[in-house]
């Protein structure tokens, strides 16, 4: 897999389950503040891990603002067929796109993803949105911004800014998508994998 360290790998936990909970709660409040409430708000998670993160943010928004209903304000946006690396990664499996019944026209759409890196996934998401409606505004929320942008894309809501080297791999592990056994405090976690030699340098 491109970007996966070869040889011995050193793994460091950067965010624990509690850290992720706090970050998502803060992002939920930031979204409400930026939107001045929950009116016409839609969260669209980008598979795979962006959707469960969007669902958790939606639950927090609903707990703060009872006017927000996750059933009508939460969806999933698959960007597979809009990516510019399909020739290099043809094995990507499309996931279903689910848009709220009220649609996206005139609404505030917050795209949610786990890691912001080159910006190419977000560019694909913006292209996908063109086929689905015309939102009033589109914002971006990510759990981790690791830098190394290749396109002029910036997140509006960030759980953690995480400076990394290009040799490192940032992995988000969530209960919903990564059910392998882990300690309870790391049931959800963000880790950095790096070549062992680089990590010890």
Automatic annotation (TrEMBL):
CDD domains in the record: PRTases_typeI (cd06223)
Database matches in Pfam families: Pribosyltran (PF00156)
Keywords for this protein: Glycosyltransferase, Transcription, Transcription regulation, Transferase
Domain Phosphoribosyltransferase: 20-158
Enzyme Commission designation: 2.4.2.9
Substrates-to-products reaction catalysed: UMP + diphosphate = 5-phospho-alpha-D-ribose 1-diphosphate + uracil
Position of sequence motif PRPP-binding: 109-121
Entry's Gene Ontology molecular function annotations: uracil phosphoribosyltransferase activity
EC supergroup of this enzyme: transferase
Entry-linked SUPFAM superfamilies: PRTase-like
Gene Ontology biological process terms, A to Z: regulation of DNA-templated transcription
Domain of life according to the entry: Bacteria
Task of the protein: Regulates the transcription of the pyrimidine nucleotide (pyr) operon in response to exogenous pyrimidines.
Family that this chain belongs to: Belongs to the purine/pyrimidine phosphoribosyltransferase family. PyrR subfamily.
UniProt name for this protein: Bifunctional protein PyrR
Gene: pyrR
């Amino acid at each position: 897999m491109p970007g996966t360290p070869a040889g011995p790998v050193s793994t460091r936990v950067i965010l624990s389950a509690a850290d992720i909970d706090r970050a998502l709660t803060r992002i939920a409040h930031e979204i409400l503040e930026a939107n001045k409430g929950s009116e016409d708000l839609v969260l669209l998670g980008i598979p795979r891990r962006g959707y469960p993160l969007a669902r958790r943010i939606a639950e927090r928004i609903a707990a703060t603002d009872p006017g927000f209903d996750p059933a009508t304000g939460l969806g999933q946006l698959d960007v597979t067929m809009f990516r510019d690396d399909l020739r290099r990664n043809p094995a990507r499996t499309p996931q279903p796109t689910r848009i709220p019944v009220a649609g996206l026209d005139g609404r505030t759409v917050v795209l949610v993803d786990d890691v912001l890196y080159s910006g190419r996934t977000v560019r694909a998401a913006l292209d996908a949105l063109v086929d689905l409606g015309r939102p009033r505004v589109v914002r971006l929320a990510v759990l981790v911004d690791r830098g190394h942008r290749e396109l002029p894309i910036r997140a509006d809501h960030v759980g953690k800014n995480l400076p990394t080297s290009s040799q490192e791999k940032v992995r988000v592990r969530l209960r919903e998508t990564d059910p392998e056994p882990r300690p309870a405090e790391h049931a959800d976690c963000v880790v950095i994998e790096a070549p062992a030699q680089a990590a010890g340098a």
